[in-house]
Structure formats: structure tokens, C-alpha cells
Amino acid sequence: MTSTPESRPPEALRIHREAMLPPGGDPRRMIIAFSGWMDGGDVSTGAVDHLLADLEAEHLAHIEPDDFYIQNFPASMEAAPLFRPHGKIENGIVKNLRPPSNHFYIHEPTNLVLFTGQEPNIHWRDYADCIFHVARHAEISTIWFVGSVGGMIPHTREPRLFSSMSAEALRPELESYGLRFTDYEGPVGLVTYMLNEAEARGFAMATVVAEIPAYVQGRNPRCIAAVLRKLSAILGFPVDLDGARAAISDWEKRINEAVAERDELAEHIKKLEADYDNEIFDTQMGDLKDWLEQQGIRVD
User: Fold this and answer.
1) Numbers of helices and strands, H then E, in the chain
2) What is the DSSP string of 152-182?
3) Is the pTM of the predicted complex or chain greater than 0.85?
4) CA 179, 146, 251 angle in degrees (round to 5)?
5) What contacts 64, CB < 8 A, 6 or more positions away?
6) Which of 92, 119, 182, 283 has its CA 20 to 30 A from that of 72?
7) What tens digit of pLDDT does each residue of 151-173 get?
């Protein structure tokens, strides 16, 4: 049978195994994560990494990185490392050189395909073609992105969870799980591009995005656990979060200790807690962020 352009893998894509659904099998879902944009608190990559550690998922495919990243972006010494690959040299010998990584995994018992990658700098359409092709190859019904945005939420509370969707038909289901809907105008990333493309490519797509505290840096285990619980409820697969509870407790304890040493920051957080508990959303995040910058505070 002659392959069509749509059936042929994109040049950058390497598929390692077949992924056909058995006859009468339940729909398969894909969960995707990107480092970089919308990965504050490691919520995006951390959630999928948790699933990969929890499930015995098999390697399905990967995207060759060469065409998608600007590795020598001219910038200051502070900004340039964001674009360059990571390397390790010991005693003058290169021991490791790690280019951007983009890999798909499949777990047949839960009908999940998991993808974790680094958001591309360029050629968004070609990169998205790779993801949509794997979705078609694995007979995916719905693509889910998990991620985060910074906001006015205290670290002592469960995060608000927001969603965007590729089609209005998805709204009732998302509403039934208590997700809020995103209102935003400004710079966007690959996820927004894919949401805009998904329906034309034959897929439903939605996001589960946690609002993370703007004043806390580093990995956020509470928000990672929150998006995993929500995905587990929506998609109907079990997720083991026993280990996450201890990580959340330790994380909150360390932040509380740091906050206790800064009276003015503690007052800001009490105000955030009151606004959050009373569903007040008109607090100006810029005021707090400006104050934190002036104080040189990094809470992690």
C-alpha cells in the first residue's frame, strides 16, 4: 500500500514500535509536558515524570532535536545558558553532552501515551507535526497538556486549576470536574498553537494548568500532585501519591520557616490567604513581585 504524506512520519520523528489499539479497545489518551514555558514549579515535567516513574511505560518514539532549538542565541552570560545544551567535563574529558530531549512512552494497561520534551524555539509547525503524527499512530482520542502559571495564590492552599480547550464540545466535561477556564491575552507558547490546530488535525485537546505561588521558586510538589489527581479523575487511571504527601509536608515546612524570618512577607501571604479564601481575584500580583524583587527574596 502506498503511504500518503500524512501517514509518513515527519523527518525528525523516530518511531520505535507499533501502537495499534486492540479491536474494541477503549480510547487511548496522550499526556504531554514541556520544560520551559508553563513549567514553573516543574509542574509540567514533574507530573509526567511522576507517571513515568510510577508506570512501566515502554519507549514509543522520540523527536530528533537538531531542527528545533537555537543553541547559540546571542545573549548575556546570564541568559545564554537557557539555550545551550548541558555538558559535563571531568579532568579535561567530556563525559556527557545532553542535547534537548523529546520522548514518547506508552502504557497499554491505562491506555496512556506520555510525552515529555523541551519546548522548541523554532519550527513549531514541524515539531507539532511530530506530536500529532504519534497521536495518530497510537490512535489517540484526546491530547492533554499539564502545566502551570504564576499567580496570586498562597503556598498554604491547594492551587486553582484552569483549562483551555480545542473545541466548545469539551466544555461540559471540563466544567463537571471543577476546572476554571482561562482568560488571557499576551505571549503564547506551543501549547496554544497546538490547541488552535488540534481540531483540524482530528483530535480533541485540553489543558490542566495549576496556578502556582509567584513568590516561590523551585519544584512545587503540591501543584504537581494537584494536577495528577485531577487528571486521574478525568481520565480514570490510578495514580500513587503516597510519596508526594511527605514531599509536600517538607516543602511547606521549609517555606514557612523562610517566611517566618521576614515579617513583611508573612503579612503579604496572610493577605493572599484571605483573598484566596474569599475568592477575591483583583489583587495586583505586580505589587508583590516588585516588592520581592526590591527585597531580593527567593523562597525555595
Assistant:
1) 8, 11
2) S--TTSPPPEEE-BSSGGGHHHHHHTT-EE-
3) yes
4) 95
5) 12, 13, 14
6) 92
7) 888 899 999 999 999 999 999 99
